[in-house]
Write the structure tokens for this entry.
Amino acid sequence: MNRASFLKPKTLYTKFVFELLNKAKNIMLKFPIYLDNNATTPMDPRVLETMIPYFTEHFGNAASRNHPFGWEAEEAVDYAREQVAQLIGADPKEIIFTSGATEGDNLAIKGVYEMYASKGNHIITATTEHKAVLDTCKHVEKAGGEVTYLQVKDDGLIDLAELEAAIRPTTILIAIMYANNEIGVVQPMKEISTIAKKHGVLLFSDAVQAVGKIPVDVNKDGIDIMAFTAHKMYGPKGIGALYVRRKNPRVKVTAQMDGGGHERGMRSGTLNVPGIVGFGKACELARLEMAEDAARLSKLRDKLENALLQIEESYVNGNRDHRLPHVANISFKHVEGEGLLMGFNKNIALSSGSACTSASLEPSYVLKALGLGDDLAHSSLRFGLGRFTTEEQIDYTIEQISSTVLKLRDMSPLWEMYKEGIDLNSIEWAHH
Amino acid sequence: MAYSEKVIDHYSNPKNVGTLDKGSKSVGTGLVGAPECGDVMRLQIQVDDATGVITDAKFKTFGCGSAIASSSLATEWLKGKTVDQAMTIDNMDLVEELNLPPVKIHCSVLAEDAIKAAINDYRVKNGLEELVFEEKGVH
């Protein structure tokens, strides 16, 4: 037997085994893969388990003071309030339960605007905030308030000197998000609060994307009011919290809903006991598992990002050092985001900065605020990894996205022009 | 919003992706849309000078699945038609064939614009007068 014929079957066999292994790996993958954890997270089964008795057995109203049903509910809420407070280094008395972060944002901004009217009417925020903050600020402007919208630097961070320069004698609130929902960039909250304190201005932060994902401590960070929500951290939808500082300084917000005076008079309405119980459990799990989750996810995120950056003309949006560990936002030049998603959205759930479905055709305002041209903003994908993301899912995603980008570039007139060395800015486009 | 079967089919197996020699006198090229709007279509026709029949059509599109499908279908329809017949292709025919939802109608308008731009390019190259088309104004 000569050497070649001896080797051949073995090579074939190895190839066969390799293919089989690959197939097995893909069979183990359950579709669709969820990589849109910035939008919402799946609920952790351990959270659901804690909640169930509070729908049926322990259904009482936490405000019923004269029977065991009420007492049970109140006890459960008190315990959850401690779990929530502990996650962010707060006192349980400083936690106001809300329906979610949109309500929290509204209560904080409108509540401060009304409560501190005698002190001033000026609010400072940034252009990359969530719509729940920006639109609430617009509401305040209509009501007679003044709002400064800070531009961000091209990495998504705010300019601290600009922030300080924007402060006026009438400034009552600085509203800066902890971490951005589209690019994951984490703002320097400590430095921001130092400036706020120096000028005696309250600091509010929409921290939905950060709480439960990275260490957030309202005292170390110097935050006075903070909104967050359960469904971004493996808890149920429809329950959130507003942290309102009680000491140094004692902060008050005017209630935006009138009623029975629940939650220290700041938020009336019968408490969502099962939701609160689940939120508490989600906070406890996050506190115990955050470090491990973050370390694992940042490794997977980096693997994904580094592999996708191997694709020619692909760019990471936002600061890569000051960023949530599980988030990546990447633009693939000359490929439109929605078209790209269509290549694999049966199997992979992701978001794009393109907004081809909206009537305005305007791409992401956050990416535009970084100074990205509309074309690059249209070409972006947002990856939000989560507690249940596996390495096999990331490997599959890398493979799918890489091949779809290449396929669509073969179909893209812009890519062809780019390859021919045509300056796309020199073309007079028919803006429609 | 789920895509229609036909859009998915054209997206997965696009017909007539490619490039014709835009310098050729018998080729008409239409480039419409803008990168900032998230849609750019380039549609090209190869015309038999003797008969006026479109013998080949190619496209390249930067855009969403509906934009890709609209241009792919447009090239299919163009082949075999005379230039005069091609002018009668209406965007609403594309909408109907592909089941495009209202938010995607602009994709079909863009495809119609690309057809007309390609025809005009061909006409100008061959000493004919440029046709003025009515603005659809949907996008």
Chain A has two domains: 3-40+290-420, 45-286. The two ends of chain A are 71 Å apart (CA to CA). Residues 273-308 of chain A form the longest helix (36 residues).
